[in-house]
Amino acid sequence: MRIGELSRRSGVPVPTIKYYLREGLLSAGELTSPNQARYGPGHERRLRLIRALLDVGGLSLAAIGEVLEAMDDPEQPVHKVLGVAADGVTPTGEEGAGPELEDAREEVAELLRRRDWQADERGPAAESLAGVLSALRRAGHGGYIDLLDVYADAAEPVARADLDYVQRRVAREDLVESVVVGTVLGEAMFGALRRLAHIDVSFRRFESPQYLSGPVEREGSGAEGADGDERGGGDGRKGGGGAGAGGPEAGPPDA
Fold it and tell me: How many C-beta neighbours within 10 Å does residue 53 have?
């Protein structure tokens, strides 16, 4: 296909495709004349991957270039490709060195030892976590750090599911692309799912009818029910009223 068709099929504008070609993010097409080139399904696939990493994964073009370089190197182990992709999505805060950050680094190292995680305690992911712990303390929410193992317990099965998906691929090209997609876009998916879960749990705890009606029911079963007993001389259910049947508005029938 010509570059115009490649643009239509991928949704990427022609000038952007030409920029990716100049920057080496996209391999050159097969020349059919001095000014024309033919592109194939592999180019379309690579363009879709670049846009996904950029638009959804939030990677910079420089980081995408590093990821693609690792993907295209047949000598790179899959584990190394995963590491490059993970580094691309890991925030690199500008935490200043100091006792607070050093304490956080030690906490991260202890977490890795405690859980027997085979990860570099000074790698980008560990440094990012240390920066988060340090920021939590500065914000006055150091108690949040007590949830580290809760978060780790949730992360382990997700990581296993990611790699289970990757291992279904046989061809190296499919496998390494799955590693990148699972690492970068999986991060975005997990974050979105966590936000959706927050919305649901928040509603159930603070906005649901059960939560809102709870205090009203307790008030009605006390004051109104007792008042009904005194007036009716019975159990507060006379005439189908009382807090137990009709809520706070229902009471004993008029005499």
Answer: 25
